[in-house]
Design a protein that fits this description.
Helix content: 55-70%
Oligomer: single chain
Structural class: mainly alpha
Order of helices and strands: HHH
Radius of gyration: 22 Å
Strand content: under 5%
Largest sheet: none
Number of helices: 3
Shape: flat
């Protein structure tokens, strides 16, 4: 089965550094296992400023 050079490199690296996998999992949990604050989301959406469709203006 074909594997790119990058895939081979990453597999080799992860075999030599098993702690990286645990760090990756820990960091992923900080992003995905959060409670959503609906009030914060509402305020964020209300505070957005509408952008013009074409923002580049030649001088």
């Amino acid at each position: 089965m074909y594997q790119s050079d990058f895939t081979k490199f990453m597999n080799d690296y992860l075999d030599k550094h098993p702690e990286v996998e645990q760090q990756r999992r820990d960091l992923r949990l900080t992003l995905w296992d959060r409670k959503v604050d609906l009030e914060d989301q509402r305020r964020w959406k209300e505070s957005r400023v509408a952008q013009k469709p074409y923002v580049y203006q030649p001088e």
